[in-house]
């Protein structure tokens, strides 16, 4: 049986808690640059919003431990935001009652709720909670982090964009990078590149079609069967293919199944063949790529990009919505977070009518549903530090004349 702590030990523990509390209050009030009583509320003035402080480095483990603690000791959460490199975060319960329950259950010292940080690498750590009247969007820390909030990448988030996660294992990812790094990187303004198959020509953004083609390099071996499997889902319309004047429509097998008749469609791969041009981009944290569409006429409709090592927010901006006899402009924009080892496939509107880019930043902000909370409306805002990211863009060179896509605004042929 564990011995009960002595009076002296309890006193020491209380002093330690008090010191942590005072430190946390000081850090929050200084960083928020507001008077104490507008920043932190006393325990007899409850609020459904709380500051949480002293949790460690603010990584995903911290976020999960704090989430579990809040759900168990409080109730359903609406949002929990922690910011890497900052020692405090902000959370909001659905109901004030939940915040009150957490404060009451875990209160050790007046005006302070402290939890032992079990699950972290430092189980001795004490985490402190305070009521606050401030909403997340009122915090100075949020302003400092003025970064667009990205949504997790999902299929259909933009028409024609498909997303496939964990297409390779972490071991395959490491092995690919080792091989890739044995080859020479060419330095551009804000990233480094390698090209395979046809050489990519910057300036005209196309390829030298007369150049002798090299097969895709061996380091692609783990991903090629996955790409084939994905491309096998795609079909092209025989009817439209027969007419050289029309844009070739593309559908997936499951879309055709829903629509009814698949007999007039043939496999995309059979018609166009496997990708034959590959561009590698190496981004250090802070690097990016300016807004662009992959030039329409030199490449077939479908292209794919694989992310290695780091996730990143990709910004998409819609060109123009083209309607018959009418010119209308749309400013539609999406920020989409691509996970490492995920593959995105561009087709249709996403390929032809949306510019994509990566902003030059070191941190991305992602809002996602909590995997821990059963509540479907509990969102977690996470700041993710970028690491080195290497992307592989697979394209198929096109020899059959100009592009006839229905999006002339961003088309080099129309
Ligand atoms: O890094 C990426 O995922 C995108 C690369 C890209 O847009 C390009 O190579 O044109």
Automatic annotation (TrEMBL):
SUPFAM superfamilies: Clavaminate synthase-like. One of its GO terms (molecular function) is demethylase activity. GO terms for biological process: demethylation. Residues 274-398 form the Fe2OG dioxygenase domain. This is Fe2OG dioxygenase domain-containing protein.
């Amino acid at each position: 049986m564990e011995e009960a702590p002595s009076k002296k030990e309890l006193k020491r523990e209380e002093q330690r808690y008090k010191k942590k509390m005072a430190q946390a209050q000081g850090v929050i009030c200084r960083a928020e640059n507001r008077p104490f009583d507008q920043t932190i509320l006393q325990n007899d003035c409850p609020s459904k919003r709380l500051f949480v402080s002293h949790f460690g480095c603010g990584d995903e483990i911290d976020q999960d431990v704090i989430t579990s603690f809040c759900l168990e000791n409080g109730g359903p959460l609406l949002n929990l935001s922690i910011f890497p490199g900052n020692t405090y975060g902000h959370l909001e319960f659905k109901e004030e009652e939940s915040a009150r329950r957490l404060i009451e259950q875990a209160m050790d010292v007046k005006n302070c709720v402290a939890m032992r940080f079990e699950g972290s690498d430092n189980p001795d750590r004490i985490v402190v909670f305070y009521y606050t009247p401030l909403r997340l969007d009122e915090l100075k820390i949020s302003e400092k982090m003025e970064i667009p909030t990205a949504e997790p990448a999902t299929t259909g988030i933009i028409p024609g964009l498909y997303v496939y996660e964990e297409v390779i294992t972490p071991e395959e990812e490491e092995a690919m990078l080792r091989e890739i790094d044995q080859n020479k990187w060419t330095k551009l303004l804000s990233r480094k590149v390698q090209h395979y198959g046809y050489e990519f020509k910057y300036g005209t953004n196309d390829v030298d079609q007369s150049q002798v083609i090299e097969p895709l390099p061996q380091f692609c071996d783990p991903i090629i069967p996955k790409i084939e499997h994905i491309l096998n889902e795609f079909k092209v319309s025989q009817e439209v293919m027969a007419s050289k004047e029309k844009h070739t429509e593309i559908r997936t097998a499951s879309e055709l199944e829903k629509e009814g008749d698949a007999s007039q469609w043939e496999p995309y791969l059979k018609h166009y063949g496997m990708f034959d041009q590959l561009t590698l981009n190496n981004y250090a944290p802070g690097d990016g790529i300016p807004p662009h569409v992959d030039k329409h006429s030199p490449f077939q409709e479908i292209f794919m990009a694989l992310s290695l090592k780091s996730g990143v927010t990709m910004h998409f901006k819609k060109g123009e919505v083209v309607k018959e006899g009418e010119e209308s402009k749309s400013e539609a924009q999406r920020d989409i977070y691509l996970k490492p080892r995920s593959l995105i496939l561009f087709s249709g509107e996403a390929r032809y009518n949306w510019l994509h880019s990566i902003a030059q930043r070191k941190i991305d902000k992602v809002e996602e549903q909590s995997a821990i909370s059963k509540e479907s409306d509990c969102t977690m805002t996470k700041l993710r530090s970028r690491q080195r990211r290497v992307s592989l863009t697979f394209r198929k060179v096109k020899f059959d004349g100009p592009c006839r896509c229905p999006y002339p605004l961003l088309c080099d042929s129309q």
